[in-house]
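Case study.
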Amino acid sequence: MHSTPEPIHGVSHTVRDAQNTRRFQLRMLAAALAYIVATAALRWRGSISWASPGLQWLLVGVAVLLALAALRAYLQMLRQADELQRRIHLEALGLGFAAGAVFALLYPLFELLGAPALGGRAIAVVMLLSWAAGSWLAARRFSGGA
Amino acid sequence: MKNRLRVLRAERDWSQADLAAKLGVSRQTVNAIETGRYDPSLPLAFTVARLFGLAIEQVFEPDD
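After joint prediction, the assembly is written out as follows.
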């Protein structure tokens, strides 16, 4: 049976939710750090004498593996989540996906009007920010804040 | 959907956290159900009814 531990970011969780959330956050942090290291090493590989091709491949491989581990932890968190938490995740993912799709389709129009070209990574940033905003909004709505 | 969760819980002198632990959900879920912001899934509604020893329609009823 689950109990209710201290809230995470103002939202109460079951013990299992809290454990899964922490696992996901730790893996996400590790994946983000590996991504930063791999990006830096590849970007400045000309000026880093020790960054041999083998090491570059290793850094990218580690970043990919840690990202997959974070993805796995996220799916586990979703599947085992308390049903209200799952609903909150669904609304957040829906907002993230929809905002990313709208941005991807409409921003090129602004580029034609002279706005700077942002590239594909901007879509991921919009999705991530919308996902985070969606999580906050849904949690707030179900807890009576909105 | 209306429900009598708050009344039934109060009759047993349970806190929201107590009920959440018995149901295996978060306290936020119990609060959201009690305040009508969230309608539970059918399995959770049955679990709630079983916990209080009542039929599901004695705990939950439609809005109309």
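Observations recorded in class. The first strand of chain B starts at residue 2 and ends at 3. Residues 3 and 60 of chain B are 4 Å apart (CA to CA). We will return to this complex in the next lecture.
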